[in-house]
Amino acid sequence: MLTPKKVKHRKWQKGRRKGKGKETRGTKVSFGSFGLKAMEPCRLTSRQIEAARRAMTRHVQRGGKIWIRVFPDRPVTKKGIEVPMGGGKGSVDHYVMVIKPGRI
Fold first, then answer.
1. Which structural domain, as residue segments, surrounds residue 62?
2. How many other C-beta atoms lie within 10 A of the C-beta of residue 51?
3. Is residue 61 part of a domain?
4. pLDDT for residue 21
5. In this structure, is residue 55 part of a structural domain?
């Protein structure tokens, strides 16, 4: 799973969805000839990125090279099972990358 080596803040606030428009950076294919394009906003987890990488690698075999240009750097917290309300924020469960439409 992909996780950052070092983070400025261990737990982030969720924040609001700023700019419901399209992505401005990372909208062109910079390496290779083909790319996957996001058609709607989402949060990609490191497990989803790894699963996509494995599927693409299995398909192209030795016929090509794959570049992953997104990295999950935003922590998502989760409280344990059957933990009562209160007691502060939960521990970091996994990391995500927030994607806007148009990102390659």
1. 37-78+91-104
2. 11
3. yes
4. 75
5. yes
